[in-house]
Each structure stands twice: as C-alpha cells, then as structure tokens.
Amino acid sequence: MSKENILILGASGTVGSEIARQLTSEGHNVLRATSKDKLAADQVKLNLATGEGVKEAFSNIDRVFLISPPGYANQYDIISPLIQEAKRKGLKKVVLMTAMGANADENSPFRRAEVELEKSGLNYNIVRPNWFFQNFNTFWIQGINEHRKILLPVGEAKVSFIDARDISAVIAKLLVDDSFNNTDFDITGPSAIDHSEVAKAISLQIGEEVLYQEIQPQQLREGLLAAGLPEDYSDFLLLILGFLKEGYNAGLTDNVEKILGRKPLSLTDYVRDYKEAWKAN
C-alpha cells in the first residue's frame, strides 16, 4: 500500500488538508490537487471548475478522494468527469464525500454523482457528513466576532454536528482500508444539539456571551451575495438550511466509531480547540 499514489482533491480545504497530512504522516504517497500554477513537489494541477488537468492528475495514481468545492450548486457537473476518468484509469479505490441527506432525492446533483460511482464498477466508499462544527469558525464567524451572535434562519432545530477532523480521519482510513469497500456512510457527531447550545459552549470558552439569533432567510441570502457567493449556490445553502430547520439533520449514527474504533469528537472538544478563533480582535 505504501507504494501506491493517493490523489487528494480539495487538498487546501478544511477536510482535504487534514486527509493529506494524516496519510503523509503514515508514510503514504500523497498527491495534492491544486488549481495554482506554481506547484510543490507533492502537488498536481487540477482546476475542478473547468476540468483542466483531470487526465494529467489521474495519470499516475491508484486511489483518489473526490469532493466538489464550495460555491457550486450543481456538484454533478464537477464530480461526474472525475468518476469517468477514474473508471478509464481503473483506479483501485474512489472515496467520494457528499453530504448527509444527499440520497434523499434521487434527482439531486450529489445523488446523481453517488449513483454514477455506485454503478461504475470501481471499489468505492461514499461519505455523507452532517454539518461541520468548523462552520462556526469559518462561514458563520463574522456574526460571532462582530456581534457576538450566531445569525442563522434555522429555528431551534437540533443538529448532530460533526468535527471536520473526524471526517478527515474517516476518509483517510477508507482510502487505504479495503475492508469497508462499496459501502456508504452517513457520519455524525456524538449528540444532537441546537445553535443556542453551540453559542453557550463558545461563551463558556471565551468568557464572553455569545447568543444565537434566528434571522429571516432573505437576510442571510443578502449577506451571502454580498460576500460574493453565486446566486444559485446561495439559494442551495438556504434550501439545505431549510431542511435543517425542519429537523432533518438531527439523526445520529455510530459510523465514526465503527470505522475509527473511537467516539467522535464532541462540542466541548471543538470549542476548546478553536477558542482562539472567537477572541476579540
């Protein structure tokens, strides 16, 4: 296994960077995909938005992690050419990350990609994580740091948030372990909690009060567009946040423990490790 080459898409992102780090530390040969022109020794150029460099990036690999980058509502258009290339190359393993609930609608872009992979004849795993804890120190951080509020249109719905480090650990394991082949996994954290509970946990860590405040979807949409997100992707985010508000993201699974042999990281673990992100400037 150590002589096989593993390509990691999204290798500069929250999940992909940790997958690459973990596999490299274990002695595996890791190639990191990047759209940048200047390449490090372990990087290959691949532009997921345009498809430029797909054949070259897949030319000398055995296993691959596939992900659609944020900002694109039609994930199928991004992922399908990658699955096709993996099939042409006869790769030993493909691990695809979509999202919890992606298989609820057979016509959704993510589900179409999943089905294509399932029918490809390749060995695969599909990983569907729930909402990330790390969204609170990335996507939703402005409201926390400027107003000490989590501002979202999600009511009091509970969510089994998962730590992105657990997602990366699961995917890294599946990439090199064939005992789970041809299985899909919904993965969650250890408990279902609401956004007020997240705000309280952050407050306790930083010693300042943070509150959750429900806002209207249109208010979030305006903020997303102002931040430069495409209109179709902003609408996609509002759609899935609507499902969250209706309670569809509260379910729990034991798949993290099944794959890793340990419990998933908790809200307490997360806020302790990321508390510096919310300190006042």
Task: Give a description of the structure.
With 281 residues, the chain is an alpha/beta fold. The protein has a domain at 5-129 and 162-188 and 251-264: 3-Layer(aba) Sandwich (Rossmann fold), CATH 3.40.50.720. Helix content is 40%, strand content 15%. It contains 11 helices and 9 strands. Strand 5, helix 4 and strand 6 (124-129) form a beta-alpha-beta unit. The protein is globular and about 50 Å long.
What would CATH call the homologous superfamily of the domain at 5-129 and 162-188 and 251-264? NAD(P)-binding Rossmann-like Domain
The CATH architecture name of the domain at 5-129 and 162-188 and 251-264 reads: 3-Layer(aba) Sandwich
Secondary-structure element sequence? EHEEHEHEHEHEHEHEHHHH
CATH domain class name of the domain at 5-129 and 162-188 and 251-264: Alpha Beta
Cα-atom radius of gyration:
19 Å
Q: What order do the strands of the largest sheet run in, or round the barrel if closed?
A: 3-2-1-4-5-6-8
Quaternary structure: single chain
Overall pLDDT, averaged? Answer: 95
> Helical amount among residues, as a percent range?
25-40%
Structural class of the helix and strand makeup? alpha/beta
- Stretches where pLDDT is under 50 for at least 5 consecutive residues are none
CATH fold-level assignment of the domain at 5-129 and 162-188 and 251-264: Rossmann fold
Termini separation: 46 Å
Strand coverage percent: 5-15%
The beta-strand count equals: 9
